[in-house]
What does this fold into?
Amino acid sequence: MAQLGQTFVASEMPQEERSFDPLPEGWYDVEIVGSELRTTKAGTGQYIAVRYDVAGPTHAGRVVFGNLTVSNPNPKAEEIGRQQMSALMRSIGIDVLQDTDQLIGGRLSIKLTIRRSEQYGDSNDVKAFKALSGSAAPAPQAAPAPAPQPAAAPQPPAGNAPPWANRA
It folds into this structure.
């Protein structure tokens, strides 16, 4: 047992007023503040878990989570995930994605729907992506420079003499 050194009274303490109810369906302006590659529960695929912070036009400060399938044994699930990833990348102006950190800081609009579930409770699904309204899609980022290739091995000079014999 550890003494706290003070007394806490629940009725005198502030209450949290945040709601975890799903947001109404519609388009929201968001910023991507987190993204990481994760393995599926079954261990047979991977997805990018993305955290979106809502900026508006309503519900600013709320958080929405979404997943983008990277690999999956079901080809249709993988195709859908890649289509969504392409739309997200285009919306934030990324042409080539090699690291999940490239998504962080991206600003875009996402379309939310509500997934109904008696077992887990209702939640939001991210269904579509577009560049922020009133602005053109950001210019695509240039592809990263290719890794330097090792220099080609020197070719022996023409003729039958070994390279060390051709000293001028």
Notes: The two ends are 89 Å apart (CA to CA). Residues 136-143 have pLDDT under 50 and may be disordered. The helical segments are 75-92.
